[in-house]
Amino acid sequence: MQRDRQLGLFYALPLGGFLALAFLAPILLVAAFSTMPPKVFSLAHLPDFSAYYTVLTQGYWKSVVWSLGMALAATAILFVICWPLAYGMAKVLGRFSLVLTICVVMTLFVSENIRLFGWVLTLMKGGLIEGYLRHWTGAGFDGLLYNVPVIVFGLVYVYLPFMLFPLAQGIAMVPDDTRQAAFDLGATRWQVLREVELPLAMPGILVGSLLTFVLSAGAIAESKLLGGQAVIVIADEVETAFTYGQNWPLGAALAMVLIAIVGGIAIWGIGRADLDSMMARK
Amino acid sequence: MKLNRRAFTAGLGAAGAAGLMMPRAARAARDNELNILCWEGYNTDDVLSPFRDLHPGATVRAESGTSDPDMINKLRAGEVNVWDLINLNQPWARGQLLPEGLIKPLTKDRFMPYFEKMAPEFSDPAYPLAFDAGGELIGMPQRYGPFSFVVNTDKISREMAEDQGWKLFLDPAMAGRYGVLTYDNWNLIHMCLTGDLNPFEPLDEAGFATFTDVATQIFGGAKLLTDDLVAMNTALINGEIDAYFTGGTYTASPARLDGLTNVRGITPKSGPVGGKGGVVWIELTSVVNNPDPSPLAEDFLEFVQKPEICKAVGFAEGTYNPVAQMGDEAVFSLWDADELDAIQWDSLAEEMAGSVEYDVVADYDKLMEIYTAARRS
Q1: The domain B11-142+283-334 is classified under which CATH number: 3.40.50.300, 3.40.190.170, 3.40.190.10, 3.40.30.120?
Q2: Which of A38, A62, A146 lies at the smallest CB-CB distance from B377?
Q3: Nearest to B376 among A39, A59, A143 (CB)
Q4: Could you tell me if B70 lies within 8 Å of chain A, comparing CB atoms?
Q5: Would you state the CATH architecture of domain B145-279+357-376?
Q6: pLDDT tens for each residue of B324-359
Q7: pLDDT at position A278
Q8: Secondary structure (3-state) at B273
Q9: How far is A214 from chain B (nearest CA, A)?
Q10: Interface predicted TM-score (ipTM) of this complex, two decimals
């Protein structure tokens, strides 16, 4: 047994080494840069952590709060939208769910920016919606872009597949017999949902929520294209610091703050989800 | 031959080791290689194909960047080994690239004659910012353009916009009627000018206070912020906004060539920098200080001085711009009337005269801090 474990470790070494190099090294590099004094472009300086002080004192928390808040809203909305859809895919639609899957996956073949620009043309003043309405009724309005709700809409639109598929997988884990038994024992629909379906589908819910939350928190295109930067998201601040700001340590520190928050939430979430039971299920 | 796993692995190792031991051979190939880091235009087929035809054995690659600092970051991150030419706006070469040893001077004898054929702004005297303090030639100018703000002349007349200048954006009646094109470094310059400050000289406390007020007011009244000129022009054309802060020939020309000549870059008639209120950018193409330089770098720089290539650079896909070489009749004759109208040729000389050179912003770091904070709130 002891030998097996050692062998396992030995066999895992090359891949482990590769992962460390390809995945951890860039993050460690960013972490190292975040400790450097402002405006330096190499690591050959004494760390002074001043970038973190700047992050704390310059009001960057606003961007962090906006990003996390909108990510939370998008995740909640997606959960509500996707639950019935996923339920249908897992339990009701049968072979038609394949068609639905293909339709949703197909949207991923087109670049996110192009899809969002499509929405700009739809929602803008004189666009598909306002233009036709004005043409038919003579009364127009001011366009639907450049505000916070439209950014959340963009997040919901772009990250729908990332909630839908894990959720469908989660719901598929709820045995029909258990639901039947609950009904037989006199449970109401609400009780079945709350006490049987939600807990049993929890791994799928957690994975879907984590994926959408993490991706939305780091999203930038929705706020730039649809929102007209009505609010500045944290990814935007990171980009500005690295480019126009020419302040790599500040950009690195902002990125580390986001990684720490999102990573913390993700680890907490994964710790609660029983991924093994989900994957092992046939 | 039967190849077992052990032999295959050994062969793979040997091949890898051989690769490591042949850096000299790999280096020699650089005689036939040219990598260009540039703004869009130099990377088009119209420019590169004729050069490739002249150098059939050479691998010529060009990549366009999305901002000056983005491209500089690449060199800073160690890509001086990769690139041979870099094409940026004028202050970066002298202010950052040369002092940090990322670019090197050009052969003066080879390039000085080209200045004589350029438009008067560049030839008499030879364009000063193309030289370092010691008189070395550090880059060749080509595309340029006034860059201040853009209006829809159906809503705001050109005369009114030029007379009001930057104050247009502080007018309470304009709140919610304009956008800000977030080319951050340009916004800093333009916000200083709006507050009657000279961005190229250090500011005092009162200056910073003024800048803070201006930045807050500009962002507060903006209907949208975007760094995408197509999105901004779209909003201007469909009436969502009537003007945008930061813009010029470069951003207005694609709409103008489509016939929407009511989209117009405006250069204010007056301003705080020696009476001027407009700003002009001029691109410089410099030779990267590559430790293993390609001889094709200077060849390419000379190649883009040819009339038809000047036109291809000035009229690349996406945006259209005047080029310094239009001072030469052979180059100028390649532009037709619509194309000249797209680049606002009618007012170009006047606008150039009303503009100061885009330069390094003296208090860049401090202003950037105020700017990002104002944008956030």
Answers
A1: 3.40.190.10
A2: A62
A3: A59
A4: yes
A5: 3-Layer(aba) Sandwich (3.40)
A6: 999 999 999 999 999 999 999 999 999 999 999 988
A7: 56
A8: strand
A9: 22
A10: 0.79
